[in-house]
C-alpha cells in the first residue's frame, strides 16, 4: 500500500525501526491494542508549574527563543571577529596568509590592533538576524513536525526531526544573513574597498544592486544548512547520550549550573563536527564575496580539492568554541526567563507496551 500520510511514510523508510515490526504485526491480525493518535507536544511543563513563565509552543515562548538566538549568535560571532578575519584571509589569499600566526602578524603589522576588528558591525547585525531565525524557527518547526508525526513516531524518528527542523529554520536564517555576510567578507578581504559598514553597504548597492548582497546565498545555504543540521542534531543526541552514559544522576536531579555545563560540553562536540562538514562551502563563500565577477563553479575550479580545506584549523577552533558558547547562552536565556526546557526524550509508555507485545 502506498503511504498517504506522513506517519505512513515514515514506516516506509528504508531504515528498520520498531514501528515497522509493529506495522507488520498489525497487518497479520495480531491483537495489538490500537492507541489513539497522540499529538506530540514536547511540553516540559505548563503554566501551573511555578518554575515556568509560559506554555511550551506559545507566542511568548517562540519570541523569547528568538531573543536567545539573537544573543547567542550575535555576541559570539562578534567576539571571534579577529579569528574569523584571519580565517577569511587565509582562504582568499593563502600565499600571503600562510597560517594563523602568520595571518595575525601580517594583519597587526599592516593594520594594527584596530585592523583585527574589521567587519564587526555587519557580523553583529547579520548573525543576530540569523540567530533570531535559526533558534526561533527551529523551535517552531520542531513543534510543527512533531505534531504531524505523533508522539510515538516523534520518539522513533527524533534525529530526523532535528535534521528537518534545523534545515527548515536555516533556509530562512540565511536569507536574513546574506547581505551582512557579503559586506563583512568584502570589508575583511578587500583592503581599500571600505573600512566600515556605512561605507561598504551603499557602495556595494550602487555597484551591484541587490544581486551583490544575495549572490552568495546559494553557497551560504550549502555551508549553513549542513552546518546547522549537524549543530542541532548532534547537540540534541549528544545531550541525550551524556545524561545516559556520563552524568552520574538524572537530569531532574542536576542543578541548573550542572545542566548548563552539560549544554556547553555537548555544544563543543557538535561544533567540531559542524566545522568539518561546512568548511568547503565556507571557503567558496569567502572567495565569492571577495571577487565581484565570479560564480560558484568558477570559484570551485579555482580552489580545487585541496584549496577548499584551507583555513580548517582556525575554523575548527572558532566554530567549536562558538557553538559551545551559543548553546550555553541560549540555554541560559531559557533558564533566566524560566522557559520550558524539555528533558531528553524518553520512549512513550504506549510504544513500550506495543514493543513488548510485538516481542512475544
Give a structural overview.
Helix content is 73%, strand content 0%. It has 15 helices and no strands. It has helices at residues 6-11, 18-27, 59-79, 81-92, 100-115, 120-149, 151-156, 158-189, 197-208, 211-214, 217-246, 256-290, 296-307, 312-336, 349-359. The longest helix has 35 residues, at 256-290. Residues 1-47 have low confidence and may be disordered.
How is this fold's topology laid out?
Blueprint: H1 6-11, H2 18-27, H3 59-79, H4 81-92, H5 100-115, H6 120-149, H7 151-156, H8 158-189, H9 197-208, H10 211-214, H11 217-246, H12 256-290, H13 296-307, H14 312-336, H15 349-359
Helix content: over 70%
Uncertain segments: 1-47
Shape assignment = elongated
**Would you count the extended β strands for me?**
0
Distance between the termini: 26 Å
- Percentage beta strand: under 5%
pLDDT averaged over residues: 82
Order of helices and strands: HHHHHHHHHHHHHHH
Structural class: mainly alpha
Can you summarize this structure?
73% of the residues lie in helices and 0% in strands. By secondary structure, the chain is an all-alpha fold.
Amino acid at each position: 500500500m502506498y503511504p498517504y500520510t506522513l506517519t505512513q511514510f515514515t514506516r516506509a523508510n528504508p531504515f528498520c525501526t520498531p514501528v515497522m515490526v509493529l506495522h507488520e504485526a498489525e497487518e497479520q491480525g495480531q491483537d495489538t491494542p490500537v492507541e489513539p493518535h497522540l499529538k506530540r507536544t514536547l511540553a516540559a511543563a505548563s503554566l501551573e508549574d511555578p518554575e515556568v513563565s509560559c506554555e511550551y509552543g506559545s507566542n511568548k515562548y517562540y519570541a523569547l527563543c528568538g531573543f536567545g538566538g539573537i544573543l547567542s549568535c550575535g555576541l559570539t560571532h562578534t567576539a571571534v571577529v579577529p579569528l574569523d578575519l584571519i580565517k577569511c584571509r587565509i582562504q582568499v589569499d593563502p600565499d600571503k596568509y600562510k597560517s594563523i600566526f602568520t595571518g595575525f602578524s601580517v594583519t597587526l603589522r599592516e593594520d594594527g590592533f584596530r585592523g583585527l576588528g574589521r567587519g564587526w558591525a555587519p557580523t553583529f547585525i547579520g548573525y543576530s538576524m540569523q540567530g533570531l531565525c535559526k533558534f526561533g524557527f527551529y523551535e517552531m518547526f520542531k513543534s510543527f513536525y512533531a505534531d504531524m508525526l505523533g508522539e510515538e513516531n516523534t520518539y522513533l524518528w527524533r534525529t530526523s526531526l532535528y535534521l528537518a527542523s534545523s534545515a527548515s529554520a536555516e533556509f530562512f536564517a540565511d536569507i536574513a544573513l546574506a547581505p551582512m555576510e557579503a559586506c563583512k567578507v568584502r570589508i575583511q578581504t578587500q583592503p581599500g574597498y571600505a573600512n566600515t559598514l556605512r561605507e561598504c553597504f551603499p557602495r556595494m548597492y550602487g555597484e551591484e544592486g541587490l544581486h551583490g548582497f544575495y549572490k552568495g546565498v546559494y553557497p551560504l545555504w550549502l555551508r549553513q544548512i549542513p552546518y546547522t543540521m549537524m549543530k542541532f542534531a548532534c547537540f540534541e543526541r549528544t545531550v541525550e547520550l551524556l545524561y545516559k552514559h556520563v552524568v552520574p544522576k538524572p537530569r531532574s536531579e542536576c542543578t541548573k549550573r550542572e545542566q548548563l555545563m552539560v549544554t556547553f560540553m555537548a555544544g563543543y562536540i557538535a561544533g567540531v563536527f559542524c566545522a568539518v562538514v561546512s568548511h568547503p562551502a565556507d571557503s567558496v563563500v569567502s572567495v565569492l564575496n571577495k571577487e565581484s565577477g565570479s560564480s560558484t563553479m568558477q570559484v570551485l575550479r579555482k580552489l580545487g580539492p585541496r584549496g577548499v580545506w584551507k583555513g580548517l584549523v582556525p575554523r575548527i577552533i572558532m566554530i567549536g568554541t562558538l557553538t559551545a558558547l551559543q548553546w550555553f547562552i541560549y540555554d541560559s536565556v531559557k533558564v533566566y526567563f524560566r522557559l520550558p526546557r524539555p528533558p531528553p526524550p524518553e520512549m512513550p509508555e504506549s510504544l513500550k507496551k506495543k514493543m513488548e507485545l510485538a516481542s512475544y
